[in-house]
């Protein structure tokens, strides 16, 4: 078992705190009749830049918030467990960079929601896992693409006019860029057996000698030294055995 990844309380605490904070912001908006939509990203307008910082915490309705909460819990936990050293940077710069791209390419409307961050996480985890070529991270990449691969369609225009496809596309681009920028350790599998070593030579392996060229198991003849040793001990073993009665053991009378 390798020790590249360690479970900490932050693996659960970070995603939970983030999602709870989103619900808290939504509760404040509903409870005090606020409208935070105008604090979202409004493209190519200077005042709309505030949305780069605030838009991930603003949602249109409870369905919008719920749909973003579950993926955030899963993806943030996966990010912090498998990429603990990069997780905070990916989240912060993922929000900022994807927000800036949305501000540049977005339609003239307010863009809100944490879906851009979700696309950042999906993109980063997928591409980074393939880049490392480490079997566990590659498996994570494949799992993410199986579960959330369908999200890619919502990064194209005209699929759903009610969503910010620009924010989704910006998230995918940002996640890919961050996967190239942030380096991870060179993961190596822990070597347990001699055959896993790079300089392994099967010709000198006693186990491999028990197989012929066709892969059939064979019994090797005993070495010459072993035959001589066996012959020596065999010749010194007594071959005649004599049974000596026990004189003290008298037979008992029949009753």
Question: What does this entry look like structurally?
Answer:
With 255 residues, the protein is mainly alpha-helical. The protein folds into 2 domains: 10-181, Up-down Bundle (Rhomboid-like fold), CATH 1.20.1540.10; 194-236, no CATH class. Helix content is 51%, strand content 0%. 29% of the residues are buried.
Number of helices in the DSSP assignment? 8
How many distinct domains?
A: 2
What's the alpha carbon Rg, rounded to whole Å?
35 Å
Strand content: under 5%
The stretches of 5 or more residues where confidence is low (pLDDT under 50) are: none
Fold topology:
Layout: H1 10-31, H2 51-54, H3 62-82, H4 84-105, H5 115-132, H6 135-148, H7 165-181, H8 224-236
Helix pairs in contact: 1-3, 3-4, 3-5, 4-5, 4-7, 5-6, 5-7
Summarize the structure.
The protein is an all-alpha fold. 51% of the residues lie in helices and 0% in strands.
Primary descriptors:
about 260 residues, Rhomboid-like fold, 2 domains, elongated
């Amino acid at each position: 078992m390798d020790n590249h990844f360690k479970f900490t309380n932050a693996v659960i605490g970070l995603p939970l705190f983030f999602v709870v904070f989103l619900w808290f912001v939504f509760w404040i908006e509903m409870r005090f009749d606020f409208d935070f939509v105008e604090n979202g990203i409004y493209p190519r307008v200077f005042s709309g830049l505030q949305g780069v910082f605030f838009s991930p915490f603003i949602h249109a309705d409870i369905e919008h918030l719920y749909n973003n909460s579950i993926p955030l819990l899963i993806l943030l936990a996966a990010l912090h467990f498998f990429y603990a050293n990069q997780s905070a940077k990916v989240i912060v710069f993922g929000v900022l960079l994807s927000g800036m791209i949305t501000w540049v390419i977005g339609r003239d409307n307010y863009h809100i929601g944490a879906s851009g961050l979700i696309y950042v996480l999906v993109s980063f985890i997928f591409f980074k896992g393939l880049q490392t070529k480490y079997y566990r991270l590659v498996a994570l990449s494949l799992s993410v693409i199986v579960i959330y691969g369908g999200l890619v369609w919502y990064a194209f225009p005209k699929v759903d006019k009610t969503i910010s496809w620009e924010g989704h596309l910006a998230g995918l681009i940002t996640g890919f860029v961050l996967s190239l920028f942030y380096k991870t350790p060179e993961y190596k599998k822990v070597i347990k057996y001699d055959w896993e070593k790079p300089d392994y030579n099967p010709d000198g392996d006693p186990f491999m000698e028990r197989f012929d060229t066709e892969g059939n198991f064979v019994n090797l003849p005993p070495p010459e030294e072993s035959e001589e040793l066996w012959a020596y001990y065999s010749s010194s073993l007594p071959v005649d055995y004599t049974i000596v009665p026990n004189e003290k053991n008298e037979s008992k009378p029949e009753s």
